[in-house]
Design a protein that fits this description.
This protein has 125 residues and is mostly helical. The protein has 6 helices and 5 strands, in the order E-H-H-E-H-H-E-H-H-E-E. The two termini are 14 Å apart.
């Protein structure tokens, strides 16, 4: 399973539904885009030290998914498909969707606009 930023945040907050979903996963991936968004939020948090420690521990047990040439091709495909269907999504989410399609895993996210991405399975809570 791959985490969107709101999934990662819910995990950090100890959301029991998200924890239950993730406990059943053999592997969890965090797109580098999600990591950047989350770190930006952590830097602005009053609970920064705790969240940074939590994140370092989590990253010892998760794969950080980086963008490469295959991701760029998936990005172009996803963006083209959404443009043609008249359902654009935010740019960072295009990159997340490209990584999700590239890795063939479901995405844990509350953002329903991911449902417009062909070939992407979103798990919500």
């Amino acid at each position: 399973m791959i985490l969107d930023t709101n999934g990662l945040s819910a995990m950090a907050e100890g959301n029991p539904v998200v924890t239950s979903i993730l406990d059943r996963q053999a592997e969890v991936g965090v797109p580098v885009i999600v990591l950047g968004e989350y770190l930006y939020g952590v830097r602005r948090s009053r609970d920064r030290a705790r969240l940074e420690r939590w994140l370092e521990h989590l990253l010892d047990h998760c794969a950080v998914l980086v963008a490469d040439e295959r991701t760029a091709r998936a990005y172009a495909d996803v963006r083209g498909e959404l443009t043609e269907s008249g359902r654009p999504i935010p740019v960072n989410d295009l990159w997340i969707a490209a990584l999700v399609r590239q890795h063939g895993q479901p995405l844990l996210s509350r953002d329903q606009h991911f449902d417009s991405v062909p070939g992407l399975k979103r798990i919500g809570w």
